[in-house]
Amino acid sequence: MTSTLTWGDPPLVGSPRARALRGTSSGGALVQVGRPASSEAAAVAALASAYDLRREATSATDLPSVLEQVAAHARSDAGTPLVLVAGDVDVSPVALLDTLDGADATGAAVVEGAAVTERAGAPAAVRVSRARRLVVGVGAAGHAVGNPGAYAVGVLRVRAADRAALAAALTEAATALRAGATGEAEPAGPDAFDVVLLAAVRAGLPVRAVPVAHQRVRRGDWQVDGAPGSPWQQRLRAASRGNDGVFSMLAIRPLSRRLTAYGLGRDWSPNAVTAVSLALGLAACAAVATGLWWAWLLAAVLLQASLVVDCVDGEIARFTRVSSPLGAWLDAVSDRVKEFAMVAALAWVAARRGSDLWWLAVLVLTVLAFRHVEDHAYAMRTRAQLLAEGWPERPAAGGLGAPDARACDAPAGVPTTVPLPPARRARLVRGAKQVLHLPVAERYLIMSLGLLTMSPAVVLWALGIASLLALGWTQAGRLARAVTGRDGFRRDRPDTALAELCDLAVLPRPSGRGRLSWQVPGLLLLVETAALLLAAGDDTTARAAAYAWLAVVCWRVYDNAYRLRETGEGGPGWLRRGSGLEWRVIVLALVGGALSQPAPALLGVALVLAALSAAASAQGWSGRLGDKAG
C-alpha cells in the first residue's frame, strides 16, 4: 500500500508525495495490549486506519494471560508485521512514521529523557545502546534498568521474521510469571506493554530504538507536549538536527526549516539540494578569487546561503525517510570541497597581491583534515569498544524467569532513573564546548566574517588558529583520558577498521590494539604535509601545486572515512597498494631533490592521483547510485 497521509491537525507540511506512505506495515495486525479508555481507543483506531492495520485487542485481565494472547497473535501470521500498542497511549500517527513506515525492522518508539520534565506516571525507562541504537534494557515487571536515557512510548513494530521469536519469548515470560505467583495471577495493569517489551529485549530480539522527537505524546496521565504547531509542523522540527552547534541552532536551522517546508511542498530532491549548496559555495569561492571588494561581500553572503541550503537536504531526507549512505556521503564531501576551494581562492588572491600564503593554506588544510580524521578514528575506536559483549551495550541474559535474570541489569551504584533535562548552566557549558569543537557552521561563520576584512591573510590565519584550538581541545581531552586509563580502553576490543584509514602501501598498518592507535592516520597526514613543503621549497608556484596535491590526499582521507562510517567498507586495495603514502613520499623526495622547478612535477602527479582517487570513489559508490540522498 502506498497512500498519502492527510490526517492530523492542519496545517499540513509538504506535498502529497512528501507525506506519502511506503506501506511497510500494511496488511499487518495492530494489537492493543491492555484495555484503553475512550480517548486512547480513538487514538489506537486512528493508528490502525492510517497504516492499514487490522485492529485486534487483548481481553485477558491477568498479565500472564495477556502475554499468552499477544504470543498467539505473534504466531498467527508469519508473513506480515505485527504492531503492538499500549492500551493507554495517545499519539498522532504522524509521530510514528519512522517507527511504522520506516525501514523494515523491529523497532520501538522512544522519547529521549532530555525532552521530558515531568516524571510522575512515566512509562518504562529504557537504555539505548550508543553503538547500534538498540533497546538493551527495560525497567518493567520489577526489573530495574541501569543508566536509562529514554522512555518507551508504547509502540512496538515487530517485523514478520521476528514474530516467532517474540511469541516464544512471551510464552516463556508468561510461564515464568505463573510459576512465580504466590496467589492470584498478577493483574494486567497499564504497564503490560512494557513487560512485553522487556521480554522481547531479554530474549535477545534486536529492537531498534526510534526516537519520537518534538511530537506530543501521552500515555495515561503522563504527557510530553512537543513543539508548537500541528503534528506535521512538529515533524518538520524533528527533521532539523539540534546538535550541530550554537550558531547553527540559533541562526542557520531556523532559516533552513523555512526553506525545507517550501522545498517539501515542491518535491525537491535531497541530492539536487546538495548540488545547489555546492554550487553556491563554489560561486562564493569564485567571487573571492576575483579579489574585488564587492565580490567578497557577495561571497560572505553566498557562503552562509550555501550553509543554509546544506541543512535543507538532510531535513528533506529525514522528513520523507529517504536517507541513504550515498546521500550522507555526498552531503559531507561537498562541505569539504567548499572548504578546500575557499582556502585555495584566498591563497590565490594573496599571491596575485604579492603575498605567498600557499604555505599557510597547506597548513590550514592539514589542520582541518587532521581534526576530521582524528574525529573519525576516535569514533570508530569508541564504537569498537562498545560493540564488545556485556553491559551496558548488551541486554541482560535470560528471560524473565531465568535463574541468572537479575532485578537490575546494571552493576551496583549505577543510576536506574532517567536523568532530568540539563539545567541552564549545563546547557551553556555544553554550548561552549560545541563552539570549541568548531563545527561546520562556526567555521563558515569565521570565513564569512573574515571576508568582510578584504584580507586573505586575516581569513586564513583566523580559520587556521580556530581550527588549531579546536584540535587542541579535542586532543587534550582524549589524550588525557587515554593516558590515565579513564576511557575504558581494552586491547582485546581493537578497532579493526583503523587499518582502512591508514593509506599505507607497504608498511604494516595499525591493528587498533594500541591505546593511542587512533592518532596514526593524522600523524601520517602530517608526514606527507612536511614532505610536500620540503619538496616545494620557496617556489610560490610549487607551493600552489603542493596544495593541489594535498587537496587530493585529503579527498582520499575523507572519502575513506565517510565510506567506513556509512557502509563499513574502506577504499579499494589496489589504490592503496599502487599510490599509498610510502610511494608518494618517495616521489616527493625525488622531486624535491632532483628538480630545480618542482611545480610541473607536483601538479602532474597530483592530477594522476586525482584521476586514480576519482576512479576508486566511483567504483566504490557505483552500486549505490540508485539510492536517494540523506
Instruction: Extract low-pLDDT stretches.
Output: 626-630
Tally of individual helices: 20
- Estimate the strand proportion: 5-15%
Largest sheet: 8 strands, mixed
Instruction: Round the Cα radius of gyration to an integer and report it.
Output: 27 Å
Query: How far is it from the N-terminal to the C-terminal residue, by CA?
Result: 24 Å
In helices, the fraction of residues equals: 40-55%
The count of DSSP E runs of length 2 or more, i.e. the number of strands, is 11
- The average pLDDT value, as a whole number, equals 89
Q: Which structural class best describes the helix and strand composition?
A: alpha/beta
Shape: elongated
Number of domains: 2
Distinctive features:
single chain, disordered C terminus, 11 strands, elongated, alpha/beta, Spore Coat Polysaccharide Biosynthesis Protein SpsA, Chain A, eight-stranded mixed sheet
Topology (elements, then pairings):
Layout: E1 29-33, H1 38-50, E2 54-57, H2 63-76, E3 82-86, E4 89-91, H3 97-100, E5 107-112, E6 125-128, E7 135-138, E8 150-158, H4 163-180, H5 192-202, E9 208-211, E10 217-219, E11 222-224, H6 231-239, H7 246-264, H8 270-290, H9 293-320, H10 325-352, H11 358-386, H12 424-437, H13 440-451, H14 456-484, H15 498-501, H16 520-536, H17 540-567, H18 573-579, H19 581-594, H20 599-621
Parallel strand pairs: 1-2, 1-3, 5-9
Antiparallel strand pairs: 3-8, 4-10, 5-8, 6-7, 6-8, 10-11
Helix pairs in contact: 2-4, 4-5, 6-9, 7-9, 8-9, 8-10, 9-13, 10-11, 10-14, 10-17, 11-14, 11-16, 11-17, 13-14, 16-17, 16-19, 17-20
